[in-house]
Amino acid sequence: MQKSVQVLRSKSVEISDKEEDALYKAILLHDIGHGPFSHTLEYQIINKVTHEQLSCHFMNHLNTEFNGSLTLAIQIFKGEYHRPFMLELISSQLDMDRLDYLKRDSFYTGVAEGNINSQRLITMLNVVDDQLVVEEKGLYSVENFLSGRRLMYWQVYLHKTGIGAEHLLQSVIQRIKELIDKGIKVELPKNLEYFINNSNPDFNTNTNDLEKFASLDDSDIITTLKLGKDHKDFVLSELCTMILNRQLLKIKFTNKQVAPKKVQKHLYKLMQTYELTEHEASYFVFSGFVVNVAYAKAQPIKILDKKGKLIELIKAGKEDSFKALLKEVRKYYCCYPKLQD
């Protein structure tokens, strides 16, 4: 973000010191609402509350603590500021967060396709009518960025091992809630137990609820798994044991929707082997799909041509490779225990 402010100012885009300060605060805090294991448990621990909404609650709380010094940052974050390009730097198809995490995740996973040239992209940014645009000479850098992001989704974010592990983790929380609703005791870390038993916390006026959520981290979930593996409930015990021992579900991708008969076959086999009900077996056998789209035209990236005209990315790129960025790729999958192979 500091680099982008520097580049835009060099191109005579007016950004005041207060706006600069607000941009740095907003980009630093925009994801502060993420809970344990990030997106995986986003709707499992707190029902119907997004991490963006939680980020806003935290920012409001901090704004009170720091005497209103985050007011402008919050306005930008919520899209209420009169200069839209500032929100686009924080949240858009070409925001500073995406430029950062693709390089980071590429480095730590060893997937070279995500190692995009973020510095060149930033130097190609400009602002026209308070909209964030990319200068024409950066057209192919944008294409490489979007293509790299799509490849990272297939190879990292939507990798079959990750999908299988995420489902198991989500299933642990779902099973815990189900058991507690039935009056069955489940031992949990104190703050996690609070939210499992309180599905509608008050983050607007109750500072205590926000502080309790802030205290949650990945270690609370790991502790939950270690406690759960010894529970008398077979489903909870097995789910926790599988994650801790990395005995993940088998997952197979296909281009066609998984036939219900195939899912039922795996279900019945598991039911017979462990004397489970169909509902209990469904924690281990299920189907679904993932979707990957490189570029969403509903949130267009604008290209500034040499004549000063703004052109939407796909229209600016004449090659077929640009049109391919719009294609939605959907892959279906079926998950089941490896013992059923």
Describe this structure in words.
The chain is built from 17 helices and seven strands. By secondary structure, the chain is α+β, with helices and mostly antiparallel strands. The chain has a domain of 91 residues: Growth Hormone, Chain: A (Up-down Bundle), CATH 1.20.1250. Helix 9 packs antiparallel against helix 13.
List the defining traits of the structure above.
single chain; 341 residues; Growth Hormone, Chain: A; 4-stranded mixed β-sheet; 17 helices; flat
Structure summarized in a few sentences:
With 341 residues, this protein is of the alpha+beta class. It has 17 helices and seven strands.
**CATH class wording of the domain at 158-248:** Mainly Alpha
For the largest beta-sheet, the strand count, sense and barrel status come to: 4 strands, mixed
CATH arch. level architecture of the domain at 158-248: Up-down Bundle
User: Which term fits the overall shape?
Assistant: flat
The tally of strands reads 7
Structural class: alpha+beta
Radius of gyration: 23 Å
CATH topology of the domain at 158-248: Growth Hormone, Chain: A
Order of helices and strands: HHHHHHHEEHHHHHHEHHEEEHHE
Amount of beta strand = 5-15%
Report the mean per-residue pLDDT as an integer: 95
User: What is the CA-CA span between the terminal residues?
Assistant: 50 Å
Count up the helices.
17
Percentage of residues assigned to helices: 40-55%
Residue stretches low in confidence (pLDDT < 50, at least 5 long) are none
Spatial order of strands in the largest sheet: 1-2-5-6
